[in-house]
């Protein structure tokens, strides 16, 4: 008995010593890195041990990135625990960094791997730039080709037509959360375009409705992933009711994804669908198609990456247009010229066609200006040295030591007063000018003018689904504005209320949703 007790004490002491030595080593390494970057300016740490510990859980962190950029300039340092982060908003350095092969994407957090599949395997589409990522990226890039998007265009239009019918049934006095509605619509678009399946999210906008199951499960699982990212011990607190509910909703999401995978296996999907291309992914190690265990997280990743990003963006557009009547008037004029506007003579506008999309010049400028101010994935783009060596950028202007995370927050780039005139103002017309997306006056990188408008970032790891995102936004918003005018509901508290409720979790949205009145242009 005494011997067992002594052994247990010794094992515990050894474990503690190991933990303490690892802890000390991590902070010692961190201090050595600090010596290399301490000449950059940056905010003071709130905690000796945890650094700028409040930032990751602040819902307004996108605005903090902007504030720090204005205060400390286009290269600054900050720290979270033993990780040093260099925040960069200089377009030339960003352009170079995103094309530098020695810098690799930071893998997804474990919480997002847990969201993606029951086995918590790292997803191929978002992992480091290895052979497996290449195989998956190639399949996804082909799936999102212009030819496939053209073939799938009727499916995009259909999801929005369904939403329009539901909105018409609600009438102008009812308050509708357009953020929720547009996230549902984007979920249905991915379901139809990707997998030939109606997820049923836009059949009704009521949460309690059975048709809202896919929406409730996807949004709920993503919220649980976000909570686990901000609180690493949350997953161990299994006795808490909210944690158990989060686990249950994630399981429901996984079973919906599993049904999609089963469907793909049972019947070969349409050649232009995303599913057909995912089935073609070959595992470079075995030379065989990837297993279901690997396929399911790829399917989930497309929903995770595509549904709230597109839905929130569309909701921000509806909001910004509701605040600028002169902008709405110009959209109306454009839609009228294309015969896409509901009028008393033609209460049902002509269905939008593929060839109409490039003609939506002004609406596209409005979408871009909204994405500049409210980039849905504004906190994205984290890179690290993958060679174990320091990476030199901008001819020595920036050295990224191995072990340091290079963060290029899109929100701060899009609000950088040094490259945007009147950055705070909503001026869609700026995107009508030739070369509006270029950072003029900034030196060229590899013979190309660096970009200042980067909602999907750039380089080999940019957004693989951006063709679908752009097409969905133009098609959906043209149809919505063709049939409705939107007014912000009183309960949102006006623009100040919206501003105060801006929230960055995985994506940028508004904690209150986006409650609006949808007023039909031609009352039925
Ligand atoms: C307005 C909508 C969207 C925005 C603003 C957006 C933004 C982004 C950004 C900024 C990244 C790069 C992050 C980084 O550099 O670390 C990214 C990556 C990605 N996006 Fe999107 N996205 C949108 C819609 C979509 C859609 C519709 C899909 C697919 C259905 C999608 C799939 C992906 C995937 C798979 C990646 C990872 C690519 C890789 O690492 O190789 N996104 N997105």
UniProtKB/TrEMBL annotation:
Q: Which InterPro entries match?
A: Cyt_P450, Cyt_P450_E_grp-I, Cyt_P450_sf, Cytochrome_P450_monoxygenase
Pfam families given for it? p450
Which Gene3D superfamilies does the UniProt entry name for this protein? Answer: Cytochrome P450
* Superkingdom field: Eukaryota
The cross-references to PANTHER family, in alphabetical order and at most eight, read:
CYTOCHROME P450 (PTHR24305), CYTOCHROME P450 12A4, MITOCHONDRIAL-RELATED (PTHR24305:SF166)
- Family designation: Belongs to the cytochrome P450 family.
Write down what this protein is called: G4768 protein
Gene source species: Coccomyxa viridis
């Amino acid at each position: 008995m005494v011997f067992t007790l002594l052994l247990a004490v010794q094992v515990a002491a050894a474990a503690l010593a190991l933990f303490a030595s690892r802890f000390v080593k991590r902070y010692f390494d961190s201090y050595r890195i600090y010596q290399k970057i301490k000449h950059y300016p940056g905010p003071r740490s709130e905690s000796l041990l945890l650094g700028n510990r409040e930032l990751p859980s602040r819902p307004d962190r996108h605005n903090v990135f902007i504030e720090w950029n204005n205060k400390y300039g286009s290269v600054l340092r900050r720290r979270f625990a033993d990780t040093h982060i260099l925040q960069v908003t200089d377009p030339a350095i960003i352009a170079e960094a995103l094309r530098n092969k020695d810098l690799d994407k930071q893998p997804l957090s474990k919480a997002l791997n847990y969201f993606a599949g029951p086995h918590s395997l790292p997803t191929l589409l978002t992992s480091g730039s290895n052979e497996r990522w290449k195989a998956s990226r190639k399949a996804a890039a082909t799936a999102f080709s212009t030819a496939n998007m053209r073939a799938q265009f009727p499916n995009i239009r259909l999801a929005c037509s369904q939403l329009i019918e539901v909105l018409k049934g609600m009438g102008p006095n009812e308050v509708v959360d357009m953020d929720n509605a547009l996230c549902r619509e984007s979920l249905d678009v991915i379901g139809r375009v990707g997998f030939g399946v109606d997820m049923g999210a836009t059949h009704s906008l009521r949460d309690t409705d059975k048709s809202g199951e896919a929406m409730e499960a996807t949004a709920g699982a993503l919220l649980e992933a976000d909570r686990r990212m901000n609180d690493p011990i949350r997953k161990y607190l299994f006795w808490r009711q909210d944690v158990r509910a989060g686990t249950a909703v994630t399981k429901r999401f996984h079973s919906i994804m599993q049904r999609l995978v089963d469907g793909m296996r049972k019947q070969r999907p349409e050649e232009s669908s995303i599913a057909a291309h995912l089935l073609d992914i070959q595992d470079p190690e075995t030379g065989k198609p990837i297993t279901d265990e690997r396929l399911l997280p790829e399917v989930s990743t497309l929903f995770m990456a595509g549904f709230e990003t597109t839905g929130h963006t569309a909701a921000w557009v509806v909001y910004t247009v509701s605040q600028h009547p002169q902008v709405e008037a110009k959209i109306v004029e454009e839609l009228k010229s294309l015969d896409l506007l509901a009028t008393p003579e033609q209460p049902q506008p002509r269905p939008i066609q593929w060839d109409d999309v490039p003609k939506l010049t002004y609406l596209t400028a409005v979408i871009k200006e909204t994405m500049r101010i409210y980039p849905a994935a504004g906190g994205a783009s984290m890179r690290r040295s993958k060679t174990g060596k320091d990476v030199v950028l901008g001819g020595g202007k920036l050295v990224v030591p191995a072990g340091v995370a290079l963060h290029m927050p899109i929100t701060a780039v899009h609000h950088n007063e040094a490259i945007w005139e009147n950055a705070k103002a909503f001026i869609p017309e700026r995107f009508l000018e030739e070369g509006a997306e270029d950072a003029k006056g900034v030196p060229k990188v590899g013979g190309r003018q660096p970009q200042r408008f980067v909602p999907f970032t750039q380089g080999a790891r940019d957004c693989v689904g951006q063709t679908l995102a752009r097409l969905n936004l133009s098609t959906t918003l043209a149809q919505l504005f063709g049939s409705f005018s939107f007014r912000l509901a009183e309960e949102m508290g006006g623009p100040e209320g919206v501003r105060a409720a801006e929230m960055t979790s995985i994506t940028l949205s508004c904690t209150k949703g986006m409650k609006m009145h949808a007023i039909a242009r031609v009352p039925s």
